Amino acid sequence: MSASTIDADHQSLLFTACPWITAAEPVSWEAIVDVPSGVTKWARWRCGKRQTEPPSSTVSFMRTVKFTFLLMGLKHHLPKARNAYNSITILIGLNGFEASSPEDIGNLAVSHFQETLGPTTHTTSPALISQVAALVRTDRNLGLWNQTCTIKLLWLLLFKTESIWVAWIHQNVIKDDSIWQMKPKQQHTWIFKQILAQRQTSIQWVQIDPGNGVDVNFWFDPWTKFGRLIKFLGPMGPRLTGIPLTTAVAELWRDGAWALRSARSHQMEELLIYLTTISLSDSSSFPQWLINGKIQTSFKSTLIYHSLVESPTVPWYPLIWIKRGIPKHKSLAWLMLLNRCPTRDRLLSWGLNTDPLCLLCNQDNESRDHIYFNCSYSSAVWNHFSSRFAINSATNTWDDITNSLQSQSISSKHKYLSILTWQATVYDLWWERNDRLHRGNHRSTDLIIAKISATIKNKISALRPQNNSLASELMQYWFLLFP
């Protein structure tokens, strides 16, 4: 194998497989000895042995390497894992390490994966198998471990500039761009796209010391305690502040003071107060890794993992953020579930002088729990749909209905359509309430039911370009329930 036969993809796989390996100077690819064509590139050790057929211990080890890469988020198939394994053995040989067996390679790999996979609990060999077995027998969430490992790769890109893999990524992938401003591209590898996807999660632990502010973007780099200011101030931030998206922090530091407009929002006021504690210097910017407010000099996977575990998914998540839902319906259902909409009981609790009666039935005091679905008007609308979906809640209260929707153990089509209909009902009843309040318009329950039905059918039809068979099945099911 000569330098000309090692393409960019092979090099990318090599450096992805070996992020822990560093070198004072670039690897000399010409030093790799040619492998005869047609011979599978199995481990070639320092002692000069060449094997055309892999021993059983090597096959077993390769399965372990494959599983480890799956845990690390790389998700390569066995052939790619085998190539990565070969690259590891070749690179170890070039750097002068003696590796005469798969167990030796495993011990070197474990030294890197030790922190991620946890301490050794068994003495069987190879050591890497013990690490994987120990992880599998724990109650850890492998999905969160995957996420933790991907965040570690982002950490390496920020703090381990001496790594060959980091240098290669910066030179060939990131180039002159900023890791915080990059957008995923088609030519990016799967693992690099996963790294970019973890930036928003990692913001909570990263803060850039702006230094002189020359190479720090005001909007996109996390140089304040608020993270990325484009998220903190919102998409209208550049217009309200008059600061373009491409502005560097140094451009806003003039004569030893910040040159910013007066605050026009609560968030901007917080930022201006915070900036009084920050001043630029003559040094270059550098990132800091903060855990619980303390600067860390190393990546501690356990701390990151537990930080992710401490934010569990709320139980009502499947009821609100359904796939192929209607965005405005999901948003209002979310606000209603949190009881954050300005119903009249909340307006009265804020000290406002308003009529407490429900705008839909004009019989009882208005509240979220009354509108959904103790109100005679809204219950007539909801009962039309719930009876067909066989949603058997004990009462028509908000809590009973939401619990019944979540506990459905029927087909996915039935559950999807029932939740989609429930969200549409929440939205249209709130729309009717506001229409009566602001415009004095009144519609009968039959018109509301017809509008909800039309909305659901339009949504199903909108799915045809993406998945025609699914749209057909959903439409047939809908007409089966509502002939």
UniProtKB/TrEMBL annotation:
It comes from Brassica napus. This is Reverse transcriptase zinc-binding domain-containing protein. Residues 300-382 form the Reverse transcriptase zinc-binding domain. InterPro entries: RVT-Znf. Pfam families: zf-RVT (PF13966).
